[in-house]
Amino acid sequence: MTPGAPRVRVMLVEDSLVVRQLLIHIVGRDPRLDVVAAVASGEEALATIASARPDVISMDIRLPGIDGLETTRRIMAERPTPIVVVADAIEDSSLRISMNALRAGALSVVEKPVATTHAGYEAVATEICTQLRIMAAVPVIRRRSIGAEWAGRVNDLSAPAPVVAAEVPSVVAIAASTGGPPALARVIGALPENFPLPVLVVQHMGAAFMEGFAAWLNGVVALPVAVARDGERAAPGRVYVAPGDRHLELAPGGALRLTDADPVGGQRPAATALFRSLARHAGPRGVGVLLTGMGEDGAVGLLDMRRAGAATIAEDESTAVVFGMPAAAIRMGGAGTVLPLDRVAAQLARIVAREAAP
């Protein structure tokens, strides 16, 4: 931390006194963070937020009265503040509510800590503090105008983007990080039920949440969604989500491959690992989509895909929660098309429609 830099102001919302005290202890150990409020309910959070002025909020989901999902919705409507959901990763109901909180505006979800004697305590504590620090810097009020730097690429938002796929496509890969769950739900949810290609997905999220994320996504989109299994063949019209802490790749012949190879750019699963596998094994028949996210994961891989002749799409700054990953792809020349989120599915449908063209 830079000497003299202000500490990140944290509000903790947690109904369990034991867990609340544990969170106070965890956050208090980090000299870059400062607990400015610790409350036991959504009502208290809403009543306290104006005076506490937190930079970031740690949000429990299962609260008495107004639950964490509704509290998140109200905060994002009334006083937008970065929110990190702290959830029990093994309870299905908590997972569903957590994913809906991400859709409502929360930025990330982390695992709830247990006793200090638990084997995974230090890793969980470190991840909580890291997420709070990172998400505190994320602007939660989206800019509505398109930056001048990218305006020339987007042009008229009502006009269709050119279809640049050189050959009939065979597989789609989509990757996202911060802000990804709702973005993926909007893109995949807008695809028709008869979408004829398999869709491979990398979403940066804690390993404990990936099964729940896939189950949630399966419940909000028309296409069937499941966590990918090593060796299975990618089937048309199905969505395959990379499991926690394993790379998802396309293997020769259209099979899926899961690997424990080293992280790429600090990420496993990594968007670049997935995109590079499509560049190798699908070439011009691949389609790559890079959505909102912090950092640069996926940018190099999308460039590899474009060089292999694939159609590539990056989300435009005007809709990205965090523009880092798509911005890096655009800067490197990996994005053949730059589109606002609500136009991505239509572009995929246009690319796929070439298969039916005479």
Describe the structure.
The chain has 358 residues and is α/β, with parallel strands linked by helices. It folds into two domains: 8-136, Rossmann fold (3-Layer(aba) Sandwich); 148-353, 3-Layer(aba) Sandwich (Rossmann fold), CATH 3.40.50. The chain is built from twelve helices and 14 strands. The chain has helices at 17-28, 42-52, 68-78, 92-104, 121-136, 148-154, 180-189, 210-220, 271-281, 299-307, 324-332, 344-353; strands at 8-13, 33-39, 56-59, 83-87, 108-111, 171-176, 199-203, 225-227, 239-241, 247-250, 256-259, 286-290, 311-315, 337-339. It has a seven-stranded parallel beta sheet, sandwiched between helices. Strand 13 (311-315), helix 11 (324-332) and strand 14 form a beta-alpha-beta unit. The longest helix is centred in the middle third of the chain and has 16 residues, at 121-136. The radius of gyration is 20 Å and the shape is elongated. The model is unreliable at 142-159 (pLDDT under 50).
User: Looking at the structure, what is the overall shape?
Assistant: elongated
The N- and C-terminal alpha carbons lie at a distance of 61 Å
CATH architect. name of the largest domain: 3-Layer(aba) Sandwich
Order of helices and strands: EHEHEHEHEHHEHEHEEEEHEHEHEH
**Main β sheet profile:** 7 strands, parallel
Poorly predicted runs are 142-159
Q: Report the CATH C-level class of the largest domain.
A: Alpha Beta
Name the CATH superfamily classification of the largest domain.
Methylesterase CheB, C-terminal domain
Q: How many β-strands, per DSSP?
A: 14
Briefly note the CATH topology name of the largest domain: Rossmann fold
Looking across the biggest beta sheet, what order are the strands in?
8-9-7-6-12-13-14
Domain module count: 2
From the alpha carbons, calculate the radius of gyration and give it in angstroms: 20 Å
Strand content: 15-25%
